[in-house]
Amino acid sequence: MKGEALLVGKNGRFSGGFDINVFQKAHKTGDISQLPDVSVALVTNTIEVVVVQGLALGGGLELAMGCHACVAAPRAQLGLPKFSLGVMPGFGGTQRLPRLLGLSKAIDMMLISKPRLSEEGEKLGLIDAIVPPQELLKALDIAEARKLWAHSLHRTDKIGSLLEAREIIKAARQHVKRTFPNLPQHQACLDVIEEGIFRGGYAGVLKVFNELVVKDTSKGLVHIFFAQCAISKVPKVTDVGLKLRRVKKVDVIGVGLMGEKALSLVNGVLDYSQFKDVDMVIEAVIENILLKQKIFSEIENICPPHCILATNTSTIDLNLIGAKIKSQDQVIGARFFSPAHMMPLLEIVRTEKTM
């Protein structure tokens, strides 16, 4: 191992990738000189082995793929989630992942942007071995045994014929056009993958990445990312010493159109008799104020005093819905956006009397 390096993460984590705060700075100033200008030689010529604990996401996973061997602890998270920020893998992932997993599986993993556990990663060929945390330094022995392995950037055994590759990319383009018609990062990623397979396009990866960063798509998605992070710190809500209320049982009145897989976890009832020990009720019936007022009046007499009374309305004044009940301080709005699997957002709205 003389002259080479073993890279291990700190505090139980390997790497979460590039600092997203730099994206935000570049959007505000228009200065892209702050964006990464990494050295490919650093990855391919210096770092022999990486040891992944906790997570290796984005640039962290791309770094791991560029090394001679990658060893991971059980249930480590591996993924390339940059599409959600309006960009694509910019540190060689578009070239290395297809060579490690095969073209179809690599495209799916990048487009879906969902992290995989290390156990699945080992089956796919993304990592070389899974080792218990207390034995991770055995990675040195694993690397010694694999000295003659080719770097991932030079592998071609899982790519298949150029004709097959062209058909796979063509099908992926059609899927992206249907599924993500207004998001440029997906097509750009396929462009770079195709360039790398047919003409060796690794040198252009960073250039395309930087071009995507300054587009309005990235600006909007990065703004959403930081807005979601800010939810955990809401002025006059999270900073006034409020205590969390345990919610063990929730009843829903009306199912609407967004049940999906959740229906398998639900028990149906025909009356309110089961509401006597509930912590929260979500009313999701049609937009009829008289019906909603009637439901709230009926369940108030059955639910315990601490029960949160939520309505899923998007058009009716919450104060009017709870106007005829005594527990007006327990009323909130809980609006789910549709389709729920594409927009994981729940809007919580207080009334004038919500405690």
UniProtKB/TrEMBL annotation:
InterPro entries, A to Z: 3-OHacyl-CoA_DH_NAD-bd, ClpP/crotonase-like_dom_sf, Enoyl-CoA_hydra/iso, NAD(P)-bd_dom_sf
UniProt cross-references to Gene3D superfamilies, sorted A to Z: 2-enoyl-CoA Hydratase, Chain A, domain 1, NAD(P)-binding Rossmann-like Domain
SUPFAM superfamilies: ClpP/crotonase, NAD(P)-binding Rossmann-fold domains
GO biological-process terms attached to the record: fatty acid beta-oxidation
Tree of life domain: Eukaryota
Domain 3-hydroxyacyl-CoA dehydrogenase NAD binding: residue ranges: 260-354
Keywords: Isomerase, Lyase, Multifunctional enzyme
Keyword Lyase among UniProt keywords: yes
Stored CDD domains: crotonase-like
Any one of the GO CC terms: peroxisome
Molecular functions (GO terms): (3S)-3-hydroxyacyl-CoA dehydrogenase (NAD+) activity; isomerase activity; lyase activity; NAD+ binding
Any one Pfam family match given in the protein's UniProt record, by short name: 3HCDH_N
The protein's name in its UniProt record: 3-hydroxyacyl-CoA dehydrogenase NAD binding domain-containing protein
